[in-house]
UniProtKB/TrEMBL annotation:
UniProt: substrate binding residues: 77, 177
Species classification: Bacteria, Bacillati, Bacillota, Bacilli, Lactobacillales
A single cellular component GO annotation: cytosol
Annotated source species: Dellaglioa algida DSM 15638
Function: Removes the N-terminal methionine from nascent proteins. The N-terminal methionine is often cleaved when the second residue in the primary sequence is small and uncharged (Met-Ala-, Cys, Gly, Pro, Ser, Thr, or Val). Requires deformylation of the N(alpha)-formylated initiator methionine before it can be hydrolyzed.
Gene3D superfamilies attached to this UniProt entry: Creatinase/methionine aminopeptidase superfamily
HAMAP family assigned to the protein according to its UniProt record, in alphabetical order: MetAP_1 (MF_01974)
GO biological process, one term: proteolysis
Cofactor: Co(2+); Zn(2+); Mn(2+); Fe(2+)
Segments forming domain Peptidase M24: 11-242
GO molecular function: initiator methionyl aminopeptidase activity; metal ion binding; metalloaminopeptidase activity
UniProt catalytic activity: Release of N-terminal amino acids, preferentially methionine, from peptides and arylamides
Name of the molecule in the record: Methionine aminopeptidase
Pfam families, per the entry: Peptidase_M24
Keywords: Aminopeptidase, Hydrolase, Metal-binding, Protease
Length: 260
């Protein structure tokens, strides 16, 4: 079921999005060589709850944590781990969902630990740009395929990276995952037509190597690149309005000025 949000519901989601954005900004000072990925979980959960939110991922289909903390070739859904110590050149993706009085927000952000490398810098820049190329297509009258095609054309055809197929964006609010699915690949002009009031996530997952993934971890959740290459992800929740797409999880009002 696709729900079209009222102005009141959108503002409630924006307040939820502000919590998740603040959490991500705080992680910029937390993520450094020598900490464990569990410390990311601890900080994130405390931040969410101290700001009145609920870490909505806890208990979702049996998931036990407030965050997914995926590192290097892990694409998504990796557990935070007490024994996994971060080091220079690690590429970390932190994904979480926040509920504030029932209003949902969902955002993943990527961080490099300590010193970076040219390969990581390029992958992060390409993935971040791909996110915004997708957002630019989220306008009334366009179709779901326009979003995916913009991302795929840039990441695969222009940059030669792998655009993950198995995991896609989605509608959000009042439940965590709802229709429509929002693939980050596809044909322009195809798929569901976008309408005012729709709230969706756009969350490209881009690999240095091929797009294929595998889920071979005993925990039953973690997905990683099939070829062992690095993977990066950025995600925003956006609402489709008569004035264009508006980001509800913005961390940078200056950069996102046209989307606020």
């Amino acid at each position: 079921m696709i729900t079209l949000k009222s102005e009141r519901e959108i503002e409630e989601m924006r307040a939820s999005g502000a919590i998740i954005a603040g959490m991500h900004k705080g992680l910029r000072d937390i993520i450094k060589p020598g900490i464990s990925s569990w410390e990311i979980e601890t900080f994130s959960r405390k931040y969410i709850e101290s700001h009145g939110g609920i870490a909505e991922q806890i208990g979702f289909e049996g998931y036990k944590y407030a965050t997914c903390v995926s590192i290097n070739d892990e694409i998504c859904h990796a557990f935070p781990r007490k024994g996994l110590i971060l080091k220079d050149n690690d590429l970390v993706k932190v994904d979480t969902v926040v509920s504030l009085h029932g209003a949902m927000s969902d955002s993943c952000w990527s961080y490099v630990v300590g010193e970076s490398t040219p390969e990581i810098d390029k992958l992060m820049a390409v993935t971040h740009k791909a996110l915004y190329l997708g957002i630019d297509q989220a306008v009334i009258g366009n179709r779901i395929g326009d979003i995916g095609n913009a991302i795929q054309t840039y990441t695969e055809d222009q940059m030669g990276y792998g655009d993950v197929r198995e995991f896609v964006g989605h509608g959000i609010g009042p439940t965590m995952h709802e229709s429509p699915s929002v693939p980050h690949y596809g044909q322009a002009g195809k798929g569901l037509r976008l309408k005012e009031g729709m709230t969706i996530t756009i969350e490209p997952m881009i690999n240095v190597g091929g797009w294929e993934s595998e889920s071979d971890d005993p925990n039953g959740w973690t997905a990683r690149t099939a070829d062992g290459s690095l993977s990066c992800q950025y995600e925003h929740v956006i609402v489709i309005t008569k004035d264009g797409p508006k980001i509800l999880t913005s961390q940078d009002p200056e950069f996102d000025a046209k989307y606020l």
